[in-house]
Amino acid sequence: MADLIVQKVLNNNVLIGEHSSYGEVVLIGKGIGFNRKQGDMIDQSDAEKTFVLKNEKEQENYLKLLPFIENDLLETIITAIHHIKERTGTALNEHIHVGLTDHLMFAIKRLSTGLEMKNPFLHETKALYPMEYSTAKEVVTLIEKKTGIHLPDDEIGFIALHIHSAIMNKELSDVNRHSQLITSLVELIEEQLEIIIDKESMDYLRLVRHLRFAIERINAGETVEEQGNINSFLKSEYPICYNLSWKLIKVMQKYLQKPVYDAEAIYLTMHLQRLQKKKI
């Protein structure tokens, strides 16, 4: 393994090293920083975990966080991010090191004072991103096993959004905006059809996934194939659902600031009609 020069010892188990190819790298390992000082040579194989932050801003933000986080928790979060990378088999946007570390630090601090943050997008997140959600669940289990800190289900949802953001290389704010839009659309459906959708049901799962794919298509400017004369049939047979589908489309247009193709109304009407049929 490559030799590195010690740049800064953060504590006995974490230090910053200078790599000939990658620049600054973070090294984690039991006792790796003990008795070491700036300018010392160190073998990369001495570290249990190594990661590189190539983006200077991310590197700067990460280094600002480190003095405020206990070493055991830092090691656990780094282990968790390695697990996320292996579990998803994807190159993660390196912002996850800053974003997830920052989020978990403050989540744990809040919980220690008895403050629990409710996640308004929990059901939507679980339905939209099942792989990310199950990975986040594993992260929460890992944190509890390593630190004894139990994080509630709301936090699983927040962690899942961080994972999705890192996988898709999207800003977390964009991921949150789409979750917020879907929540608003589901609330409008429940209000207009006078129903409460079971958030654990397959119907809900199908609806939310359809809305997610519709949003992605609209953002990408993709067209949906027209289905012959079915448009006029749905309009006459299911006027409530058809009109509601157009209300939903208007909300999406306004929120996304992009045009929505007419064919989206056909597929939305079919989903809505299935929900209305089950109304008691």
UniProtKB/TrEMBL annotation:
<dbReference type="Pfam" id="PF00874">
    <property type="entry name" value="PRD"/>
</dbReference>
<dbReference type="InterPro" id="IPR036650">
    <property type="entry name" value="CAT_RNA-bd_dom_sf"/>
</dbReference>
<dbReference type="Pfam" id="PF03123">
    <property type="entry name" value="CAT_RBD"/>
</dbReference>
<dbReference type="InterPro" id="IPR011608">
    <property type="entry name" value="PRD"/>
</dbReference>
<keyword id="KW-0677">Repeat</keyword>
<dbReference type="InterPro" id="IPR050661">
    <property type="entry name" value="BglG_antiterminators"/>
</dbReference>
<dbReference type="InterPro" id="IPR004341">
    <property type="entry name" value="CAT_RNA-bd_dom"/>
</dbReference>
<feature type="domain" description="PRD">
    <location>
        <begin position="68"/>
        <end position="173"/>
    </location>
</feature>
<dbReference type="GO" id="GO:0006355">
    <property type="term" value="P:regulation of DNA-templated transcription"/>
</dbReference>
<feature type="domain" description="PRD">
    <location>
        <begin position="174"/>
        <end position="280"/>
    </location>
</feature>
<dbReference type="GO" id="GO:0003723">
    <property type="term" value="F:RNA binding"/>
</dbReference>
<protein>
    <submittedName>
        <fullName>PRD domain-containing protein</fullName>
    </submittedName>
</protein>
<dbReference type="InterPro" id="IPR036634">
    <property type="entry name" value="PRD_sf"/>
</dbReference>
